[in-house]
Specification:
This protein is of the alpha+beta class. The protein contains 9 helices and 18 strands.
Length: about 290
Amino acid sequence: MMLRRSGSGDHGGDDVACFRLGEIDVSLRSELPGPREDFASLYRAFTIDRRSVRNPIQMEVRRAGRLGRRFVIVGDGEPIGHPVRRNEVMPFLEWGVNWRVIARFPQFLQLHAATLARRGHGVIFSGSSGRGKSTLAAALMARGWKYLSDEFALVHTRTLRLHPFPKAVCLKEGAFDVAGRLDLALWQHRYFIKALKGRVGYLCPFDVAPDPIAPPSPARYVIFPRYVEKGEPHLLPLSRAEAVFSLAGSTMNHGAIGHRAVSIIADVVRGARCYILESGRIEPTCDLMEELVA
C-alpha cells in the first residue's frame, strides 16, 4: 500500500465546517485550511449546514508562535495537549473531539471499546490499545456489519443501548498490510503521527460500505479480544462478573457517572453473552464472529 505523509504548505483561512456524528455535532475552525479540509474530506458524509448545528463541540486549530510550524488544538475554548506538528494535527483533533465528549455528555457511559451491530445485536469489543479492536471492526464492516464506534463506545445510561458515534476508524501502522489484503484503502493513502502510537491512517466508514451506520442497538455480546500473532482464533467463555470488572476498568467518564458506572455496566452485561476472543488471522477471526452472532 503506497502511503504519503501528511505535508505542510497551508495558507490562511478562517471558515467553519460542521459535522454530525450520531447525536453529537462538531464544528471546526482553523487558522489554516489544511486541517479543516482534511477533516471535511474524511467526514464528508457527516457534513451538515452551519444553520442546523445543535450545541456543537467547538474545535479550533491555532498557530503556536510566530513561525507557525506548530499548532494548538482547542476544544470548547480549552487547549488540548501540547503544540503539535502539521502531521500530528489530525490525530489530536480526533482525540480532542473524544475529550470533549467525555466532558460534556454524561447521558452516556463511555467505554474504551469498539462497537458494531449484526442483525440488531450490538457487540462490544473492549480492550487496551494494540488488541486489534479497530482492525477487527473494519474487517467486520467490510462483511456487512453495521458500525457504531471505534475505541469510544457510548452506552445510554437509561436505555442501555449502544449509540452510534461513527468516528473514522484509526488503524496503526501494523494493520496497514491487513487493510490492504482486505481491499480497505486508507483515506487518501495518507498517514499521520499519533504520539506514542506512531504512524496511523484512517478509514471512513462510507468508504468501507454504502450504508454502514447502525441505529442505537442493545448490547448482546461483550468480547475482549487478545491478539495472538499467526494463531487460530477461538472463544473462551467469560463470567458476567469478570466482564463487569473488566468493563469498569475501561470507563472513560467515571468522574461524570460516579458510583452508577458499575451498576449500569452490570445491567448491560446482564443481557449479554461474554467471551475472551483469542484472535489471530483476520479472515478466520471474522468467520468465528459471524458464526457466534448468527
